[in-house]
Specification:
Number of domains: 2
Largest sheet: 9 strands, mixed
Helix content: 25-40%
Number of helices: 10
Shape: elongated
CATH topology of the largest domain: TIM Barrel
Number of strands: 19
Order of helices and strands: HEHEHEHEHEHEEHEEHEHEHEEEEEEEE
Structural class: alpha/beta
CATH class of the largest domain: Alpha Beta
Strand content: 15-25%
Length: 376
């Protein structure tokens, strides 16, 4: 929690549940990544948090933007981003979205299949395109490897075909998974994709860019490596494969930029010991998986929880949301412990929830209002 957020909560006592996000922390995180990877262009992953206040601050810092939809592209443009600073990074795009983005001046598009490449050739002629390669996501708390990416052999064929289809075969990309906690994942992925990059270059393809994706972690319940550990591993591996002839480098951070800039303030709706012979209490909050905490699916992302009773006696808990859906359970197997004094009406804070919370929130499931947002 930043001092600004602490003051806001103390002075304003906002209705819960709500997100409170310190935009100055967003700027500090952006600068930290830029210092750590000065040779890489930072394309902020808009899906992490597309709030105008976040986008406008990043535009002022000359950030680039990774957009997943035409709607996100429009948000970037409305925040003042020049179209040439935007990449349409989703490999699954409607024809109408491709046309609109191309007409708006967006220069760069991702793909991972022949069918998508053909759509780009027809509806975004002359565009820069980059092919997403399937890589392992070992070490990621939120893997992304099954739905996206193609094989090395198929990527080679597609990139060889791109120029003949009137497109600019600009580069290759990969993603090692969100909340990636190991540097080895980047080292292995770079080595794999660098071989294809060299092969295609020798075959006459004018490749210029390597997109390393996002995945840089933030601290939740467990410690994670500092960003310098990742940047050192990335640059060491890139230099090992490319020497001094480094290609243009792109990174697409989302979580790292905004997660620890915000927290969710919630209210305890009920604390109950449903089985008198079981020490585990059930703690029900006024926000759950359908209110924005979707990344607790499978108990993947484990948020830190702060209460006004911290420091007192603790006991085991299961934590759930307020809806009537049986899937609305946040943590049951992850050994969470909360103060025994915690009771209905208490406020709690879920820390580092600035990323992938507002954008996952449902609209009025069970009648509950969408998550309120405060940017300070």
């Amino acid at each position: 929690m930043t001092p600004k957020i602490a003051r806001f909560l103390s002075q304003q006592q906002p209705a819960t549940p709500c997100l409170v996000l310190d935009v100055d922390r967003v700027e500090a995180n952006f600068h930290a990544l830029r210092r750590s990877l000065p040779l890489a262009r930072i394309y902020y992953a808009v899906k992490a948090n597309p709030a105008p206040q976040v986008l406008e601050r990043l535009v002022g810092l000359s950030s680039f933007f990774d957009a997943a939809s035409m709607e996100e592209i429009e948000l970037c443009l409305a925040a003042g981003a020049p179209p040439e600073s935007i990449s349409f990074g989703n490999t699954i795009k409607k024809v109408s979205a491709i046309r609109q983005a191309h007409a708006a001046g967006v220069p760069m598009f991702a793909f991972d299949s022949r069918e998508e490449l053909e759509k780009l050739a027809r509806h975004a002629p002359g565009a820069r395109v980059y092919c997403r390669i399937l890589v392992e996501n070992d070490g990621a708390d939120w893997p992304l490897s099954r739905k996206f990416g193609t094989t090395i052999d198929n990527a080679r064929d597609l990139m060889l075909a791109a120029a003949g289809m009137g497109l600019d075969p600009y580069g290759l990309s990969f993603h090692v998974g969100s909340q990636q906690t190991t540097t080895k994942a980047y080292e292995v992925a770079i080595a794999k994709v660098a071989m294809l990059f060299t092969d295609l270059t020798e075959a006459g393809v004018n490749l210029r860019m390597m997109n390393l994706g996002g995945g840089f972690p933030t601290r939740y319940r467990d410690d994670v490596p500092e960003i310098d550990r990742f940047s050192d591993a990335i640059m060491r591996t890139m230099t090992a494969h490319f020497g001094n002839a480094l290609p243009e480098m792109v990174v697409e951070p989302g979580r790292f930029i905004v997660a620890d800039a915000g927290l969710v303030c919630a209210e305890v709706v009920l604390v109950s010991q449903r089985n008198p012979h079981d020490p585990v209490r059930w703690v029900y909050l006024d926000i759950g998986r359908f209110g924005g905490l979707a990344e607790t699916e499978g108990e993947a992302i484990k948020y830190r929880i702060a209460t006004s009773h911290d420091g007192g006696a603790m006991g085991p808990v299961a934590i759930a949301g307020p809806t009537c859906d049986g899937a609305d359970i946040l943590y049951e197997k992850s050994n969470y412990r909360l103060p025994l004094a915690l009771t209905s009406g208490d406020r709690v804070e879920l820390l580092s929830t600035g990323a992938y919370v507002t954008t996952y929130a449902s609209t009025r499931f069970n009648g509950f209002a969408p998550l309120a947002e405060h940017y300070i």
